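Sequence in, structure out. Go.
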Amino acid sequence: MKRPIYYIKNISFSIQKGIFFLLSWLINFLSNSIFATSFAVIAMTIYRLGFQHHILKINFIQNTILYLQILLLGSFIIRLIILIQQKTLFRIILGEITLLLFLSVLVVEHFFFPNFFQNWLGNYYNLLETIYLISLNSIVFLIEFSKKSLSFLRGINPSLLFLSSFIIIILVGGLMLLLPAATYNGISITDAFFTSTSAVCVTGLITVDTATYFTFFGKTIIMVLIQIGGLGIMTFTTFFGLFFSGSSTFKDQLLIKDIINSEAISEIFKTLIKIILFTFIIEFIGFILIWFSLDPHLRFSTEHIKFSIFHSISAFCNAGFSTRSLGLMDPSIAHNYLLHTIIAFLIIAGGIGFPILLNYYKLFKHFLYNFIRILQGKSYSHKPHIININSRIVIITTLSLIFLGMISFLLFENNNTLKGYSWAEKLYFSFFASVTPRTAGFNTIDYSQVLPITALLTMFLMWIGASPSGTGGGIKTSTFAIAILNIFSFAKGKNRIEISKREISSQSVRKAFATIQLSLLVVGMSIVLVSYYNPELDFEKIIFECFSAFGTVGLSMGITPHLSIASKWVLIITMFLGRIGTLTLFVAFIRKVKTVRYKFPAEEIIIN
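Output:
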């Protein structure tokens, strides 16, 4: 009598297993459909914007986009029903519902409330609709791509992954800048990829005038490339991949830890959220402050709003791009010192790096927590070593370089480019001139007019660059600090570097000196090649240009547009290496050896 019951249970289990596999297949199919459809919507929208079309063709494209949006919406609804039935994590369900609501807006408006938003938004409707459409579908596409990427990127070297992500974005950006609608009169392939590399690598060197050469569509592409390049595409993909996949393997977490430089594996997801939130909050505050610093009579003009958004992103990401031909030297803003100060502090915030910002955020939370405890009559709760050695080194080095650079610039240029200004203005210009070479590239003075010693100082600051995990390039402040500390340690007869009762690891010291050596090699090769391809240009200006490219700064003595095609490609490679780091390139392609269990006898080499 037990055999029939056994068979019934077996059949029931087989049916459940079959349903499970069917639903899994259906979810996978719907995910692929969403991935392909969102990409198609983005491609169709860019095609509509990037080329001139007849009115009938425009209507056909818009109808196609609408049908694709309906297909996307349907796929989301079916997938959401299945996920709810499978009792998926609440976080994922909430994310799916949020996306579903945003996706339904345009479809519902088209069928049930035609012209509602158009009547409300007026002339801004088409622009805002396009931005909404591209942004939303880009997020959907990125989410689906991120979920897929977590599975097939596990075996890839993080350095190679980081390097590859920049190359892909540069290629996509260059192709988009080649679209007819991106420029007023077209652009060469070299100039398109130079601009794309400069934007993604947050440099700011330009071969064509951003203000007059590119349309609003072209400037928007540049702004998006700056944002992606500054924050890093891998930050977005890993965040969405973790959030919407629901879980990750230990190997995934190790990979992501290397990409975002997180201290602890357990805090990876929180770190990603904080990085993205910090970025957009600081940029939004920057936008508001820049907007208020402009002419109040024209405050609500679209030009001022676009200017504020573009320059907030460009400053925080240390890009140095401007929508004014003369940058901050433009007569309309040349003496707007409030604007310049806001940009300077955005540059510093972006250049310091996310780990340092997050570390000081912990300190702020600690003080706030204790302040509340004291108000409640409780005792102070001490927490040791909140600010780690890395943060201390970066902050001390950053402030020291800003102060010493400011004093040096004031002394060197007092009777040159600063002549005729008041002492307050001289101090301000010196402060800004000390901040901006640290990979930002905004200029308030003409660098072709500075003294040779000032140019040398600026090149030195450009070479050092920003801080680790910041939005800039160069050898980084921590590398420079370790090199200086090593000199003093050696002079004292110590065989190790010690600071604040902590010892700097030998691996960090080796990495720092390898970075310095490789940086000088790259800059040296760049100078030699540009001098060879453009022998007619002033040698000092070539050196300045190459240091600016490697440091991803963007300051120039005015020779960038006059470079030959070969020289432009040399600088493209230099900017790329400066942004990703020369050591990253070697780590990505050179095979690692296994840890050896032997050690040869040490022998002294005569150095000096």
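Check: The longest strand covers residues 497-499. The chain has 23 helices and two strands.
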